[in-house]
Amino acid sequence: MYHFLLRPWHRRWGASGDEVNRHLPGDEIVPEPSDETTRAVTVEAPSEEVWPWIVQLGQGRGGFYSYTWLENLFGADIHNVDRIVPELQELQEGDSIRMVREDYWLQSSVTSMTVERIDSGRTLILQGHDGGIWTFHLDPIDDDTTRFLVRGRKPETRSAVGYALRYLTYELPHFIMERGMMLGIKSRAEHDS
């Protein structure tokens, strides 16, 4: 039931068919992904009010605006802010964005990600040490409305065991947290608008 009903839904949560199929900046970094998700939400705020929330993402930064209790249940030490923090608005290519605290008990290829590319006000692309990308993209619809898309692309999985582990232990929890993050950004940007 998960594979045929829930999985197809959560892999493209909120996204239209056109959004799922369109090229987004960063797709060329992983041109033939073994796995891809595209999720989207409409934010009733101008893109310039959404962007600052995206720029300050990260552990030890603005947090991930998701389920703090769940993030910290596993010791990630996430503190989600409810305001724009001016000193967190400077982000450059090559900067590291941590997903968990630096001395976290479980280190993986996505414990931290590197800022691969920034198109200020529009696109932030993070890349994990496994080569995968996490793209945050804003499409202004009009002066007061923004379409917020998040795409994940994974390179080819090295083993069947690695694929099975990602399928069984990573996909659904990642969706729950990413959806929470997207709704958290939406709520904060709309509140400020």
From TrEMBL:
- What's the protein name? SRPBCC family protein
Q: Which species expresses this protein natively?
A: Halapricum hydrolyticum
